[in-house]
Amino acid sequence: MDQLINQVRGFSFGGMTYEKGGLFGPILRPYLSVIVIENGCCTMRSDLGSVTVKTGQTGILAGRSRFEFAYTRGQSTTVSWCEGFLPELPEPVFHAQYERFAPLAATDRLKKLQNIGVDTGHTSSAGLNSIRDAVGLAVCRTFLLDARQSLSEEKLPKRVLEAKRFMEERISDETLDVNSVAAHVGMSPQHLIASFKASLGTTPGKFLWQMRSTRARQLLIHTGLGHAQIAFECGYKSVSHFSRSLKKQFGATPSQIRREEGFVQASDKDSSVTDLIFD
C-alpha cells in the first residue's frame, strides 16, 4: 500500500453531512480514499472489495476501475474525506501494491490532519496543492501506522517483511540485488523468490524496481530535484536507465511526468460523478 499511496496524483479533501443518507459515485477511474465518520455509517465499495466505516472510525480503500460511497438510508452521516487519483497501472502491479485494511478507531492525530486538509478548500494554486499533497500523504501514512500498530502480527512472513524493509532502506544502492537481500535475511535466493511470489505475487527483483520507479515518480512530482539526483537517490545506474524505466512503468518520460502530473479536481466537484441524497 505504501507504494500505491506514493503514486497518488493530486490529493484533495472535503466534508459533508448526508442528513438521510445517500449515494456518491461511481468514480470510474483508479482512486483511493480515506474517510473519517463523525457520526453515522458509510460503506465504501470498489472493484477490489468494500469496507463499512461507522461512527468514530476511519477506513481506507482503493479501486482500479470503480469506486462509490453508500451512506445508510434514513440515518444522518457526517463524513470527511482525503482522496486521490491513481495512475493506470497494470492489474498485477496494482494488486501487488494494494493491501486491504479493516476500519479503525480514528485517532486524534489522524483527525487533526484530516481537518487541516479540509481547511485548505478546493482552490488550486502551487502552494495549496503542495500542502494538500503533503497532508494527504500524512493522512494515509498515519492510517497505515495506526493499522499496523493495531495488528497483533503482520500478515506477511517475518523474513519477507525484513527483506522489504532492507530494500526500502537501501533503495539508493545500485548494487542491491536478490543475492544481497537473501543473505541479509538468512535465506537462499531461491527460497526468497518463492516466498515473495507466495506472499506478494511478484519476485524480489521486480518488487525492488517497482519501489524505485514509484519513489522516483514521487520525487519528480513533489520536489525540484534534477533527474540525475533522483536517479542517484533511487539506485538507477544512469539517467538514461532512469528514463527508460519510468517510461516502461508509467508510459511517460520523467519530463512528461513532472510537467503533466499536477492539480486534479476533487471528485465532489466533478460533474461526471453523481451525488444522490436521500429524501
CATH fold title of the largest domain: Jelly Rolls
The first-level CATH class name of the largest domain:
Mainly Beta
CATH superfamily of the largest domain: Regulatory protein AraC
Summarize model confidence as the mean pLDDT: 89
| Overall form | globular
Distance between the termini: 37 Å
**Can you summarize the main beta sheet?**
5 strands, antiparallel
Rg measurement, Å:
20 Å
Question: Which residue ranges are poorly predicted, with pLDDT under 50 across at least 5 consecutive positions?
Answer: none
Helix proportion range: 40-55%
Task: Describe the protein in words.
With 279 residues, this protein is an alpha+beta fold. The protein folds into two domains: 2-152 and 269-277, Sandwich (Jelly Rolls); 158-260, Arc Repressor Mutant, subunit A. It is 45% helix and 23% strand. It has helices spanning 2-6, 91-97, 108-119, 126-150, 158-169, 178-185, 189-200, 204-222, 227-233, 239-250, 254-260, and strands at residues 9-18, 22-27, 31-39, 41-46, 49-54, 57-63, 67-71, 77-85, 104-105, 275-277. The strands form two sheets. A five-stranded antiparallel sheet has the order 1-8-3-6-9, covered by helices on one side. A five-stranded antiparallel sheet has the order 5-4-7-2-10, with no helix packed on it. A hairpin with a 2-residue loop joins strand 4 and strand 5. Helix 3 runs antiparallel to helix 4 (126-150) and helix 6 (178-185) crosses helix 7 (189-200). The model has no long low-confidence stretch (mean pLDDT 89).
